[in-house]
Design a protein that fits this description.
This protein is mostly helical. The chain folds into 2 domains: 5-47, no CATH class; 50-92, no CATH class. 53% of the residues lie in helices and 6% in strands. It has helices at 15-24, 44-47, 50-61, 64-67, 74-92; strands at residues 5-7, 27-29. It has a two-stranded parallel ribbon. The longest helix has 19 residues, at 74-92. It starts with a strand and ends with a helix.
Amino acid sequence: MRPGGLAADKGYDSIAFRGYLASRGIRHSIPTRRGAVRHFHTHREISSHRWKVERFFAWLNGFRRLGIRFERYSFIYHAFLILAAIIITLRYF
């Protein structure tokens, strides 16, 4: 299953990557880097929901244990990640 669209940040701004997405039929919304002369069309309906994802990651960074990875095993980190997502969901919704 292919995604209908991709909203990426400036780190993915390259002609090769844009060509790859276009060849697969995936619409994208990637802003250009500073100083780039190229002008690409961005899809407002794709990038309009990106702030929700960025906000959620900012809330996850508020949990210090997730930002600085103290856990030795990945399943413990994954459990704390799920717990943080539950706390964020209960707190803000």
